[in-house]
User: Fold these one by one.
Assistant:
Number 1:
Amino acid sequence: MIIASKKQLEDIKEMLKGYKRVLNVGCGGCTSVCLAGGIKEVEDLCTQLTVSMKTEHISFETNGYTVERQCEPHFLDELDEIVKKYDALLSMGCGVGVQFLAERYPDKPVFPALDTVFSGGNKDIGWYEERCKNCGDCVLGMTGGICPNAMCAKMLMNGPCGGPQDGHCEVDSEVPCAWIQIYERLKAQGRLDNILKVSPAREWKDQVQGTLVLEQYRDRYAKKDK
């Protein structure tokens, strides 16, 4: 799940400076689940902006509208008529949602109300942990289901550094060393031989936009490219 957090109100106001009518678009997906951009959060932010702008005697109007998911274009269909009367859009979706809105409505400035933090899971009520860096080269089968890319402060892929103390990371003594955890997990599973297997240097793909087309749809989209 994508985890996001709301930007400071003053930062949002600074982005919206000069725009008098703003549509605040929420998302019923990930940012709703992590209590950052669902219906309630959209309403709360609209109220905060309205009160703050009124206090500063700034002419401003904002309304909220939450779609099922901002990261899927067909869910944006219902916005097509609504956005026409607004000067700008504010997105309470993740970074992907912001970009989809901007692509859908290129004549409207689109601003992010949230910071997209990481991909993670819900450990408890209001407690989320990063577990995946979305690297596109998953090694979890070799590391006992513990991701060194996400859980090692140095992102080491072939064993620990020389700094762990009492099983904890030298970068943060409150954080367990990922590689010691991997060792203990593999040992308990009788798979310690995995530790000796060297991961080759990763071919990072961050330089280009990531795209994934499911195998069963490749013929469909290949025809469009011709």
Note: The chain has a mean pLDDT of 89.
Number 2:
Amino acid sequence: MKNLFILFGFIGFVLTLGTSADAQTRISFDKGAFSKTLTVTVPAKSEKQYSVLVKKNQVINVTVSGDINVSKNIEFPAISLNLVNGEDGVDNWQDGEGYLSVLTGTDGHFIFSVSNSSNRPRTFKMRVSVTDDHDDYMGGID
């Protein structure tokens, strides 16, 4: 009986790991479209992850607008964007207040996080676009 309990505990642990590895939401575009605008709600003190499939040398731009600041008086953003799986020396990326821009160095799924540092949930618009035009990259290329 003890071995059975340990086996079920191990299976549950493995299933939990498998679920968290695929926890990001995949973004796909309508046929012929190169961008998509989503309404996103991120719980207080939390983050969500998204992924987008791209080819090498494409540009991913993510921008957020709406309820993203700490308050109406303080312009500091409560919502931040970060590239999760970028590879230094291969991919180029730049993030700032309300945007993330990536020039991809490989084919594959690029994962980015949207974090909420405030004490309340935030609902806002997020626009994700993918283009082949290097001029769309918001960072400088060395």
Note: The domain at 25-136 is CATH 2.60.120.380 (Jelly Rolls).
Number 3:
Amino acid sequence: MPASNPRTKRWSRLEYERLVNLGAFRSGEQVELLGGDLMVCEPQGTPHMTAIRMAEEVLRRAFAAGWEVRTQAPVALDDESEPEADVVVASGSFRDYRHAHPTRPALLVEVADTSLESDRVHKGSAYARAQVAEYWIVNLVDDVLEVYRHPIADSGAPFGWRYGSIVRLAPGERVSPLAAPEARVRVADLLPSQLP
């Protein structure tokens, strides 16, 4: 009998949401849907969680009224992806999302240490495919902020898209989010290593 290649099941976002609603995952189990695959998220250490809280605080000030800033929350990117970004910035307020997760975030932020390569390649490609205009990686490994902008098609990328502009900013630099161009975010305010 010839050996067969194992088949995997691709999940839709609606199937994934049904699994969540049925309680298929244990409490506290970090799972997200990316490109039809169920992905197990890496555990978070103290610097990782500190950076999430720092980004949330900074972005609440930068975006102010009319914007919802939420942490470790699902985003309904497309029919195959519902990742849980570390920080999500979407227009409106939390009341606007009582029946469904945001689908068109203005900015997604991931804090990366052990997940750095996956956040760059896989999440970056999924976010670009969903036409998220701006994606930031708080890179704890190199102590920089990576700013990704301008999604472009690329058949070599995992989900057929990538970002055309990537800028690495050091702690002494500042960045203005595309959706809040008047704001000036200090990169140091996103990095736990820069805390006094």
Note: The chain has a mean pLDDT of 87.
Number 4:
Amino acid sequence: MNLHTRGFFHYLGHLASAIIMCVLLCGTVFAQQPSLAAFKVDSLEPLPVVSIPRTPLPQVAEQHQFWDRNNCILFTAVAALSAADFTVTRDNLQSGGQELNPVTRVFGKSTAGLAVNFAGEAAGVVGISYLLHKTGHHKLERMVSMVNAGSSAAAVSFDLAHR
């Protein structure tokens, strides 16, 4: 591995860490928590009690079904790019190349292990998306598929460029 390749993966690791921190700290992840602006920090007086009239809440339309058209397209892209990543990675490993992803490296000793890795990755994307869908985080639900498809596309491009 040359110096430019190491620098690229070093940069990619820092970028992935920054994206994960942004997702963990963003406000939409904690959308159900009360705002800190509602609390009086400068005084120790209790907040006044406000009575809210009891009126029925308006019916909220369901955001979308989990297996809607957009998710089907995204999951198809994830599956196709995972299959492409599997194929290119297997070919590179059989040609004497080396796996750079430490997680995939554990499974990359055999073709079956490599297939399990990429199939599990695609299944994990669907599972995480479903969890985010059920908790009402619909934008993050779709973002998981987009990030995975993008990273698989980048891996395929990198592998094809370094044959």
Note: The two ends are 12 Å apart (CA to CA).
